[in-house]
Amino acid sequence: MKPLQVVVFYCVNCVDVNALRLECREQGMTAATFVSLPCSGKVNLLYLLKAVENGADGVFLLTCPKQACRFLEGSSRAENRVRAVDDLLDETGLGKGHIRVLQIQDRDSAGLSVTEMVHHLEGITAGADQTA
Amino acid sequence: MIVAQRKTIPELVDILKDHKRILVMGCGTCVTVCLAGGEREVSILSSALRIAARVRDIDFEIEELTIERQCDNVFIETAAEAVERNDAVLSLGCGAGVQALAERFMKKPVYAGLDTAFLGILEERGVWTEKCAACGSCVVHNYGGLCPVTRCAKHMLNGPCGGSREDRCEVRPDRPCVWQLIFQRLKGIGQLDRLTRMAPPKNWEPALDGGCRVIVREDHRI
Fold first, then answer.
1. A129 touches chain B (CB under 8 A)
2. Could you say which residues from 83 to 102 on chain A have a Cβ atom under 8 Å away from some Cβ of chain B?
3. How far from B158 is each of B147, B148, B150, B154, CA to CA, in Å?
4. A62 touches A113 (CB < 8 A)
5. Using one digit for the tens of pLDDT, what is the confidence trace for B149-173?
6. Residue B220: CA atoms inside 13 Å, Cβ hemisphere, count?
7. Which chain A positions have a beta carbon within 8 Å of B43's beta carbon?
8. CB of A102 within 8 A of CB of A116?
9. pLDDT (tens digit, 0 to 9) for every residue of chain A, 132 residues total?
10. Which of A91, A94, A96 is the best mutation test for B, with the most CBs of B within 10 A?
11. Residue whose C-alpha is closest to residue B195's, from B210, B209, B208, B185
12. ipTM of the complex model
C-alpha cells in the first residue's frame, strides 16, 4: 500500500526535528515532509492549503502549549488558522480532519506526537475507505 | 473602505462549473484591507477551488492575478492579456470592480467571487463594522460625528427610541446603541444642545432610492 503523504509543520522552539524524523520512520510514517517555522504563529492559511492541494493526506502543525509560546500568541493564532483551513477544506468537499494541531508538551515528547499522528491518519484512511 | 466577504466554495463551483480556464482576479485596494480579495486571498481561494475541483472531478485550470484597482480602467487594462487567455473571470473585487471588468471585457463572462457587504472600518483585529450607508447627504455633523442612519437599527434621526437596554441596542444586543454613543460624544465636546433641535425628515433623493447615482465634476472633464 502506498504510504500516506504527510506534511508536518513544526515550531522550532518545541520540536527536536531529528528525533521527530527518527520517530516517524520507526512508526512507519515514511512519506512525511517536515517544514520548520520560527513560531507556529508564522503559519499561513496558504501554507496549509497548498500542502493539501499538492497531495498531502494529512497535515499536522506542532505547536508549543499556548501558555508557553515565546511569542505569546503564536500557538493561539496557529490553532485559529488550522480551524479556518479545516472549515475551508470541509467547504471544498474534502471533509474535516485532514489537518490537525498537536501541542507538544516538551522537546522529548516527539514519540507521543507521532503516535497521535499515526492514529489520526488511521482515522482518515478508515473514513476514506468507508466513503469509497 | 468597502467591506466584502467571500462566497462559499460550493456556490463558486456552481457558478464556474461550465468553464475550464478561470482567471481569479484580486483587487489591491479595499478588499485587500478587509482580507477578502487581495493577492493572498486570491491564492487561498484558487487553492481551495483546485481542491474542490479534484474532489468533484471537474477540470479547472486556474490562473491567479491581482491588479491594483478593479474599479479603474487604467489598472484593468493591465489584465487584458490574462483575461483574453481564460474562459471566464472570477472577480474578488467589490461590486463596482466586477461591473467595471464586465463592461471592459464585453465578450468574457465575469463573476463575483465576493458578496460586497458595506462601507465600514476595521474595529479590532478580524472585526469590521458598518459605519456609512452612502446615503448621499451626510448628517453626522449633527450627531457628534456618528451616523444614526447607518448605526441605529431603526435609522432614527430623532432618537433614542427608548428600547435600548443599558447601552445596548434592542435590535442587536451585541452592538452598542448609537444614540447612547451620540449622547456621550456630544456631552464630551460640549454640544449637547444639538439634541434639543428636532431633525427634519431626511431627503432620501440623493440616496439609492433615486436610482443609480452619478457625480459629474465639470472642472475635471476635458
1. no
2. 88-89, 91-94
3. 12, 9, 14, 10
4. yes
5. 999 999 999 999 999 998 999 999 9
6. 3
7. 46
8. yes
9. 678 889 999 999 998 888 888 888 888 888 899 999 999 999 999 999 999 999 999 999 999 999 999 999 999 999 999 999 999 999 999 999 999 999 988 777 767 778 888 788 777 777 666 655
10. A91
11. B185
12. 0.89
Give the separation between CA B105 and CA A28, rounded to whole angstroms: 54
| Cβ–Cβ under 8 Å, residues B199 and B212 | no
Residue in B191, B177, B207 with CA at minimum distance from that of residue B142? B191
**Which residues from chain B sit within 8 angstroms of residue A52, using beta carbons?**
51
**If we measure between CA atoms, which residue out of A118, A110, A11 comes closest to residue A63?**
A11
- The residue assigned the cell 524524523 is A21
CB contact under 8 A, B9 and A50: no
CB distance B56–A50 less than 8 Å? Answer: no
Q: Do B55 and A92 touch (CB under 8 A)?
A: yes
Q: Are B70 and B24 in contact (CB under 8 A)?
A: no
* Interchain CB distance below 8 Å, A93 and B8: no
The residues that bridge with B67 in the sheet, in sequence order, are B27
- pTM to 2 decimals? 0.91
At residue B163, what are phi and psi to the nearest 5 degrees?
-95, -5
Q: Tell me how far apart the terminal alpha carbons of chain A are, to the nearest angstrom.
A: 16
